Amino acid sequence: xxxxxxxxxxxxxxxxxxxxxxxxxxxxxxxxxxxxxxxxxxxxxxxxxxxxxxxxxxxxxxxxxxxxxxxxxxxxxxxxxxxxxxxxxxxxxxxxxxxxxxxxxxxxxxxxxxxxxxxxxxxxxxxxxxxxxxxxxxxxxxxxxxxxxxxxxxxxxxxxxxxxxxxxxxxxxxxxxxxxxxxxxxxxxxxxxxxxxxxxxxxxxxxxxxxxxxxxxxxxxxxxxxxxxxxxxxxxxxxxxxxxxxxxxxxxxxxxxxxxxxxxxxxxxxxxxxxxxxxxxxxxxxxxxxxxxxxxxxxxxxxxxxxxxxxxxxxxxxxxxxxxxxxxxxxxxxxxxxxxxxxxxxxxxxxxxxxxxxxxxxxxxxxxxxxxxxxxxxxxxxxxxxxxxxxxxxxxxxxxxxxxxxxxxxxxxxxxx
Length: 417
Hints:
Layout: H1 10-14, H2 41-53, E1 57-60, E2 66-69, E3 91-95, E4 101-104, E5 116-118, E6 124-133, E7 150-152, E8 157-166, E9 169-170, E10 177-179, E11 183-187, E12 190-192, E13 195-196, E14 203-205, E15 209-213, E16 216-218, E17 221-222, E18 230-232, E19 236-240, E20 243-245, E21 248-249, E22 257-259, E23 262-266, E24 269-271, E25 274-275, E26 282-284, E27 287-291, E28 294-296, E29 299-300, E30 306-308, E31 311-315, E32 318-320, E33 323-324, E34 332-334, E35 337-341, E36 344-346, E37 349-350, E38 359-361, E39 365-369, E40 372-374, E41 384-386, E42 390-394, E43 397-399, E44 406-407
Parallel strand pairs: 1-3, 2-4, 3-6, 4-6, 5-7, 6-8, 7-10, 8-11, 8-12, 9-13, 10-14, 11-15, 12-16, 13-17, 14-18, 15-19, 16-20, 17-21, 18-22, 19-23, 20-24, 21-25, 22-26, 23-27, 24-28, 26-30, 27-31, 28-32, 29-33, 30-34, 31-35, 32-36, 33-37, 34-38, 35-39, 36-40, 38-41, 39-42, 40-43, 41-44
């Protein structure tokens, strides 16, 4: 399922309006062609330094230009890690265009560094219409190893508009972006094919706010932790009118999304993600809201579509064709408090010996209202398996599941086996 991009009102709430002063006088050319800096790493560093000295500003980047960075600019930020460009300590906008990219050199011998760090008392970085690629953080057990493309310090802000972050690597968390209590907003952007050695193959947040609007988080990998696409260990995450597809938690939970804070997912496709542990599409240990979304064709050991160990509300959504490969809960595995309303749980399955093709309730409570659980398959409890806790059906049809609809016999009131 793909969704039509639309501007989200949450952006206005999440971002304060910050005046920007151009670094150079505006050209009479509406494309600002006369203002564009030269296509060189030195010119880019100089322009950012100039914007900092001016208290903020906009840097117009050259079109059809690769700004290739081959050396460390600083390690002076709160992350302690190496950065390829000067610290962003004031409001700075980098405006690109057709064919504009900023990237770490791929030449042998190039030192490791991320591209940007947003820090200082007033750090606010806006990237507009460009690609950022090949950042690679240094080894370390702390923040120096986080955020392959961008590290956002506490209380600072990052706004991405029509930006692609691709093929960046973090030794620890946040293959593309690591947010440590700041604000990160994506609009009409892509986070593609990034990787993290621990969690958050695409984006990792530990507090603060992350808002993803009309964007794609695709093909990212967390190789040693949770959240192949997006990982949150606190704070607030919103994802609207977006796609979270084909991400992987290689040795963890939450192939698409791992939520340990508060997450609100609306009009979004979570499709084709994989996790070795729990929650192929979404793994939740916090508070989760899913509305008008599709959770399709995801795979995990347990909870192919969604694994909930916190509080989850799912409404007007479809959980379809997901697989729990070795455990149970092909569509939904619950051990917390889960409410499903006006939704379809259809065509999900478990591997050999798995329980609950549509729904596995292993603890806590699952309440299904005005919903359908159909054509799911498992070794037992093709539709619903109540292992512990309670499953409640309100005006919900459980039918055409294999080998049975509900199990154990008479465990789920109102459901024929």
